[in-house]
Specification:
Elements: E1 4-7, E2 17-18, E3 22-23, E4 26-27, E5 35-37, H1 39-48, H2 63-69, H3 80-89, E6 94-96, E7 102-105, H4 111-118, H5 123-133, H6 136-141, H7 146-164, H8 166-170, H9 174-187, H10 191-209
Parallel strand pairs: 1-7
Antiparallel strand pairs: 1-4, 2-3, 5-6
Helix pairs in contact: 3-5, 5-7, 7-9, 7-10
Length: about 220
């Protein structure tokens, strides 16, 4: 896996804002420096922190790994690529190359951008996470701290859902905001997680104003 630069329709590098809060310089910039990422670490990140990789452009799989994992899951909808990455992450270690090896074209007419503007079907985040938590391999990986892993995983889903609710502010759609809140309360019934959500918003606002000063990935010199 490797980070992607973002480009516009004229192949110029751009730095768009995602979910209003963050300006994105690269996608899937996972760590500083190349290195092996063991499956416990990457699965914990997939479930509780961020999606380390999703877009197929930025990932290379072993053929036998993909065949063993089976077909894409249609129930995962727009997150079918994410669900496949999580399925592979439960069984395989990943290797990160800290070099920009691909580009993702970002413009506001593409399907993904439209979904972010009009609102994603946020229940899919919970579906993909619960599918992974039902995986016996994942349960064995985190058997020593399982209850906390489940709670934190659902909280991460709720954070993603809450960010999606921002589309309701952009489109002035009270129904989208209300439906997002209803989904969060229905799918994540932990009151502690509800109390954590305002802190998450404060954290994201702080990060957008004072982003971490990390070294950028290497620029590719390959033809």
């Amino acid at each position: 896996m490797a980070p992607l630069e973002l480009i516009d329709e004229n192949d110029r590098r751009i730095f768009p804002r995602f979910y209003v809060f963050r300006r994105m310089h690269y996608r899937y910039s996972y760590q500083v420096g190349d290195g092996l990422i063991d499956r416990r670490r990457i699965m914990k990140d997939f479930l509780t922190r961020d999606y380390p990789c999703v877009v197929p452009t930025g990932i290379m799989f072993r053929r036998e790994a993909l065949f063993a994992a089976g077909p894409f899951c249609p129930q995962a909808d727009f997150a079918a690529d994410l669900e496949m990455c999580m399925r592979l992450g439960a069984t395989w270690d990943f290797y990160y190359v800290d070099e920009v090896l691909a580009s993702e074209r970002h413009h506001y007419r593409r399907h993904t951008a439209t979904l972010h503007q009009t609102g994603l079907k946020v229940i899919i985040f919970y579906y993909v996470t619960r599918k992974s938590l039902d995986n016996k391999i994942v349960q064995e990986l985190f058997h020593d701290n399982w209850e906390k892993m489940v709670r934190d995983s659902l909280f991460f889903c709720s954070c993603r859902a809450l960010l999606n609710g921002l589309a309701g502010l952009r489109t002035r759609s009270p129904s989208l905001i209300l439906n997002t809140i209803k989904t969060i309360m229905r799918e994540d019934r932990d009151p502690i997680n509800w109390l954590r959500l305002p802190l998450f918003v404060i954290e994201q606002t702080w990060i957008s104003i004072f982003p971490a000063k990390l070294p950028p990935p290497r620029e590719s010199t390959r033809a």
